[in-house]
């Protein structure tokens, strides 16, 4: 069994975001990078399935982007993925999900994956499309925002997040793709032996120019902070005085 | 298994205060063994004591501080303060290794600013690493995450070397211990001082003078300055010079009672049982002194919280020694300007 996990390296949300020189995305200076939080759940779920099946499945971590995304791939491998794939694309941040999904699907087609896990969305663009588009391109059934995953001899039962706190139950067979939502699991902390093993595992690099081009249907024309509409006041201080100030403000607005 | 026989609750509860080793007649080294067992849990099993530590480790990996605040903002506390960014041997007298709390925590930033005020008054030029500074790694090492500790330490050593610093001063006993002792194993050989002995020297050498304003206080010997580094007299001498009338708490000096935050526990979710910090502030309250003086940002944080949770606001306040000194500086103009 072969399992693919698609991961994205995203900027840490607490970084200061400034428009880049072109004014169409954020400047990468002073940005701290991390694996997309939802993709951590995807990695964890793939590894749990591998453990359930006594280590037999091969779990591959794949990421699209410049050189720096290798840190995210190594993190996935330090958690326990068997190997990595790096689709090397220095312009990945300018591309839309349709293009990224196109690259991933082109690679995945060659490998015959049984299951694919991705995060429900990325913490920077937040499109929530890439996983679904990959499934579509591969002809896989796809279930999004899963909160629970169970595998039993080829039959998979998942619970997915719906509005209003409801859960939908879906039962299907592989091959299939799942996008993972917060609450699915708590990702494991990499152990030292796995961190060291990860440095020896193989990461295959595929230049994006080796893959079929995908034309964008949308392009980014601007990136700027929203104009201040109202004003936000951040109150700081001791709890007792904070409460008084909130009361003052509310009374003043009456 | 050893960890299970001892109980992981007990293993994680330790604050590495070294109170045990201080009294042990057989010189058993409890703390080292506890940390070794923690290392096994963290590094070999990936077991962590709760979600607080899980997020702190994740934040430290991404932003080099346990709060998850942007690493690029680490030097922001120094805006408008007379410190320079040390890059490539800029020649400041000292490198002030501020640490995570002084850099990011609102209360502890006041200590950083007080310390710089003191240096300015004494004619000591101060440089910082700014966003080049990472967590010193002491709480991380204390929790058994040797791998993350070494990652942070090696990056710090690289940046410290690149800064050309010849002398490091810190306002945190944890940074003080780890930079001054543990970093030596990793190749750092620059002298490291804590701000208490540094200020004491400034007073002794006449580079700093204080206008004493009389006040009643009690003084908390932090574990990492006291038992770990034998620094008890210099801080008390400073308090005297500042006009302090000191009433010692029960368990002071070598037998000082921990604030509860050591051994990485400042990052850990609450332990079962009563709060160590509350026990300690009750001891402070029992001296009758209205002011508790500390020398460590962890102690400061724990005591600020415990004073509130014990309902002692208005009765007892806590301040760092640097704040007390800064309040009493008389500007010293020396005839000759000498480098330090």
What this model shows, in words?
The complex is a heterodimer of chains A (254) and B (340). Chain A is an alpha/beta fold. Helix content of chain A is 28%, strand content 26%. Chain A is built from six helices and eleven strands. In chain A, the strands form two sheets. Chain A has a nine-stranded mixed sheet with strand order 9-8-7-10-6-1-4-5-11, with helices on both faces. In chain A, strands 2-3 form a two-stranded antiparallel sheet. In chain A, α2 (70-79) crosses α5. The radius of gyration of chain A is 21 Å and the shape is globular. With 340 residues, chain B is of the alpha/beta class. In chain B, the strands form three sheets. A five-stranded parallel sheet of chain B has the order 1-3-2-4-5, with helices on both faces. A four-stranded parallel sheet of chain B has the order 8-7-9-10, with helices on both faces. In chain B, α13 (276-286) crosses α14 (297-309). Chain B is globular, with a radius of gyration of 20 Å. Chains A and B meet through α5 of A and α4 and α5 of B.
Number of helices, counting only DSSP H or I runs of 4 residues or more of chain A:
6
| Count of beta strands of chain A | 11
* Count of individual helical segments of chain B: 15
- Helix proportion of chain A: 25-40%
Outline the biggest β-sheet of chain B: 5 strands, parallel
Report the C-alpha radius of gyration of chain B, rounded. 20 Å
**Estimated structural class of chain B:** alpha/beta
- The CA-CA distance between the termini of chain B, in Å, is 54 Å
SSE ordering of chain B: HHHHHEEHHEHHEHEHEEHEHEHEHE
């Amino acid at each position: 069994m072969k399992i693919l996990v698609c991961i994205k390296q995203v900027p840490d949300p607490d970084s200061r975001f400034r428009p880049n020189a072109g004014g169409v995305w954020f400047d990468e200076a002073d940005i701290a990078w991390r694996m997309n939080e939802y993709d951590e759940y995807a990695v964890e779920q793939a590894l749990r399935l591998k453990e359930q099946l006594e280590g037999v499945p091969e779990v591959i971590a794949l990421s699209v982007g410049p050189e720096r995304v290798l840190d995210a791939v190594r993190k996935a491998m330090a958690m326990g993925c068997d190997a990595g794939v790096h689709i090397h694309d220095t312009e990945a941040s300018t591309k839309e999900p349709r293009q990224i999904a196109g690259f991933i699907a082109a690679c995945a087609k060659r490998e015959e994956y049984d299951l694919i896990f991705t995060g429900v969305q990325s913490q920077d663009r937040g499109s929530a499309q890439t996983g679904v588009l990959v499934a579509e391109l591969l002809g896989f059934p796809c279930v999004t925002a899963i909160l629970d995953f169970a595998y039993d001899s080829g039959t998979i039962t998942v619970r997915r997040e719906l509005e209003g706190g409801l859960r939908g139950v879906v039962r299907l067979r592989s091959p299939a793709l799942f996008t993972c939502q917060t609450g699915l699991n708590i990702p494991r902390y990499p152990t030292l032996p796995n961190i060291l093993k990860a440095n020896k595992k193989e990461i295959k690099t595929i230049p994006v120019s080796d893959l079929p081009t995908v034309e964008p249907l949308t392009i980014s024309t601007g990136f700027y902070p929203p104009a201040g509409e109202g004003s936000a006041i951040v109150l700081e201080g001791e709890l007792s005085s904070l409460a008084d100030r909130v009361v003052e403000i509310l009374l003043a607005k009456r | 298994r050893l960890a299970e026989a001892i109980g992981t609750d007990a293993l994680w509860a330790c604050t590495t205060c070294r109170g045990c080793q201080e009294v042990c007649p057989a010189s058993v080294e409890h703390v080292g063994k506890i940390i070794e067992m923690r290392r096994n849990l963290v590094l070999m099993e990936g077991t962590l004591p709760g979600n607080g530590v899980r997020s702190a480790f994740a934040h430290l990996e991404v932003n080099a501080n346990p709060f998850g605040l942007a690493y690029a903002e680490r030097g922001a506390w120094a805006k408008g303060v007379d410190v320079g960014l040390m890059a490539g041997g800029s020649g400041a007298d000292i490198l002030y290794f501020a640490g995570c709390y002084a850099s990011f925590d609102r209360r502890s930033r006041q200590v950083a600013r007080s310390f710089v005020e003191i240096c300015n008054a004494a004619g000591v030029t101060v440089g910082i690493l700014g966003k080049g500074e990472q967590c010193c790694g002491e709480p991380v090492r204390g929790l058994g995450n040797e791998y993350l500790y070494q990652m942070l330490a090696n990056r710090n050593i690289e940046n410290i070397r690149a800064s050309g610093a010849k002398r490091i001063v810190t306002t945190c006993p944890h940074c003080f211990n780890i930079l001054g002792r543990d970093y030596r194993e990793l190749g750092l050989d620059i002298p490291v001082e804590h701000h208490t002995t540094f200020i004491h020297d400034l007073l002794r050498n006449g580079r700093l003078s204080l206008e004493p304003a009389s006040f009643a206080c009690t003084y908390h010997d932090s574990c990492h300055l006291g038992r770990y580094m034998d620094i008890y007299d210099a801080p008390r001498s400073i308090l005297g010079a500042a006009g302090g009338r000191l009433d010692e708490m029960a368990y002071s000096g070598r037998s000082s009672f921990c604030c509860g935050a050591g051994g990485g526990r400042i990052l850990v979710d609450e332990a079962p049982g009563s709060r160590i910090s509350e026990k300690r502030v009750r001891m402070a309250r029992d001296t009758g002194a209205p002011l508790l003086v500390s020398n460590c940002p962890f102690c400061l944080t724990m005591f600020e919280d415990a004073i509130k949770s014990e309902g002692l606001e208005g009765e007892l306040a806590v301040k760092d020694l640097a704040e007390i000194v800064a309040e009493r500086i008389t500007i010293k103009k020396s005839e000759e300007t000498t480098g330090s």
